[in-house]
Amino acid sequence: MAVGIPGVGIGGLFYLVNALRIPVTALRRASRGEPSPIASSRALRLTVMALAILVGTWFTGVAVGALLLPTITPAHEAAGL
C-alpha cells in the first residue's frame, strides 16, 4: 500500500467537489426564491475551507518538489554519458 498526502484520494476529492458546489447551489436556489437548507455563512465557511485545502495541497506538492529536485540526478549523468 502506498502512502500519499492525506485528503487527495477519492474521498478527499469528493469532499472538495461537493464543498465547492455548495455556494453555486445556494445561489441558484436563492435566485429561484426557494428556501436554502444551508445558511449562507455555513456555505461560505465550507467553501473557504475547501479552497484552503486545495491551496495547502498545492503548496505541499511544490515544497516536496523543491526539496527533492536537487537530489534527482538526470539519467544521462547517472549513466556517464
Counting H and I runs of at least 4 residues, what is the number of helices? 3
Largest sheet: none
User: Which strand-content bin applies to the residues?
Assistant: under 5%
Shape: rod-shaped
Rg over alpha carbons? 20 Å
**Count of DSSP strands:** 0
Order of helices and strands: HHH
Which class of secondary structure composition applies to the elements? mainly alpha
Which consecutive residue ranges, at least 5 long each, have pLDDT under 50?
Answer: none
Q: Termini distance? A: 36 Å
The amount of helix comes to 55-70%
What is the residue-mean pLDDT, rounded to a whole number?
80
Question: How would you describe this protein?
Answer:
- The protein is mostly helical and 81 residues long.
- The longest helix is centred in the middle third of the chain and has 29 residues, at 40-68.
- The radius of gyration is 20 Å and the shape is rod-shaped.
- It is built from 3 helices and no strands.
- It has helices at residues 10-32, 40-68, 75-78.
In short:
This protein has 81 residues and is mainly alpha-helical. Helices cover 69% and strands 0% of the residues.
Q: What would the keywords be for this entry?
A:
81 residues; 69% helix; mainly alpha
What is the topology?
Elements: H1 10-32, H2 40-68, H3 75-78
